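[recover] target loaded
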């Protein structure tokens, strides 16, 4: 990789600013001052120092967010705050994006990354990655509803969902359930319950594949994936 591209990709400055730093002798590679901005470097082996600080190159970033209500799963929007607005500025130059969507009033697990291949592996219906939600439902939920979901539910537009797992945690005037789906149609969970004359009044995603919501994360808080979580993501791309 070109030296100027490597440094710029790490958010040190614009490509023009980085080239100026290189020309002025502020950059060294393996202890040698470099003034050639097109110098090739091995990002995994070469030691690159800019203004006295070593640069550790990363191509991809993987972040777990506990999404709160009131923000949308997008990179930009003219009318609402987005999940990108919640991220520390140190991640901005990676240009991460949300993997899949959570509705504006849905909370919980959301992965943000700039790794397009991983995003495809996690969201493609063909991969059948399980997504588990905790939901509060207005009205009683019983075993007949569990059986309906296990066969797939016909939505209002005629779409037949794939079979889903519905687990009853508590059945009352407001019921609590876990629902597991392997697809992600627009407002799917809410529409599935509408199809059985029930209303979702709270929805939280708690798991996506092997990624589980970190319960220590407050709403709106974010952290990088740990080693185990990262290994799972990398395994999906193989």
């Amino acid at each position: 990789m070109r030296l100027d591209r490597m440094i710029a990709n790490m958010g040190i400055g614009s490509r023009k600013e980085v080239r100026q730093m290189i020309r002025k002798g502020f950059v060294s590679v393996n202890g040698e001052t470099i003034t050639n901005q097109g110098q090739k470097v091995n990002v995994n082996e070469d030691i690159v120092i800019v203004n006295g600080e070593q640069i550790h190159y990363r191509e991809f970033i993987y972040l777990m967010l506990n999404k709160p209500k009131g923000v949308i799963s997008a990179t930009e929007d003219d009318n609402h705050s987005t999940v990108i607005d919640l991220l520390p500025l140190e991640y901005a130059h990676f240009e991460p994006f949300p993997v899949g969507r959570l509705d504006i009033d849905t909370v919980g697990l959301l992965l943000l990354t700039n790794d397009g291949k991983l995003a495809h592996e996690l969201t493609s219906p063909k991969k059948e990655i399980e997504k588990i939600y905790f939901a509060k439902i207005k009205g009683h939920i019983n075993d007949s509803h569990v059986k309906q979901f296990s066969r797939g539910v016909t939505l209002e537009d005629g779409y037949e969902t794939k079979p889903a797992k519905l687990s009853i945690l508590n059945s009352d005037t407001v019921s609590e359930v876990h629902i597991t789906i392997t697809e992600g149609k627009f407002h799917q969970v809410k529409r599935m319950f509408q199809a059985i004359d029930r209303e979702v009044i709270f929805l939280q995603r708690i798991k996506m594949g092997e990624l589980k919501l970190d319960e220590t994360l407050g709403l709106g808080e974010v952290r990088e994936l740990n080693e185990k979580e990262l290994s799972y993501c990398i395994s999906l791309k193989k």
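[recover] notes: The longest strand covers residues 199-208.
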